[in-house]
Protein: Cyclic nucleotide-binding domain-containing protein
Amino acid sequence: MFEKLEPHHLELLDHYGLLDHQTNCRICFFNSGDTVFAQGTIYKYIMIVVSGKAKVCTQAPNGKDLVLTYYLSNGLIGNVELMSNTNHAIASVIALSSFECIMVPFENNQDSMFSNLTFITQLAKDLSENLISSAHSYSSNALYSGEERLCSYIIHGAYKNYFFDNLTDVAATIGVSYRHLFRLLNRLCDEGILARDHKGFKIIDRKQLMRHSSEAEK
Structure:
């Protein structure tokens, strides 16, 4: 779905130094569960996140499950591909809520955005933040229990205190079986930390969820 640019969209373009691209930009809307960007897709544009939350994930070796790399609620989509001169998406982006972004087409590596200092500076900041998020995800899998990893996953993946995600992907990401994931979720519900919702889970006690997570001070 596409709409015209509004003032707050122009502010975001200005933040990235891309006002000169506004005539070719489009506003895109996605629902929870929609694929924003599919791994392997050929692309000639980047996206600036306006609102909502999404997860960036890669296909697991079994070819079926998607394994979380990091969460996204602001910044750029397609920045890694842009800087590595790759013409296809190296990861998938899945919306976890209503998700809005600005699509910014570019011609090739001779496009003016590549010589735009404001854009390159913001791009570097986004890449460093993504690297930090990915490093935290990997360390959590190595050092913490399944329950701690799950609680951290929910904290970072929740949007407005609701957690909606594909549970098969959740199990693959935190490194537990699908059956064990259900046991962990049931335990959190029994303890009054979560409550089942028709679309997923609602966070009832965020403090306790934090205490059960890898984010808690030990």
Notes: The CA atoms of residues 58 and 91 lie 5 Å apart. Residues 117-143 form the longest helix (27 residues).
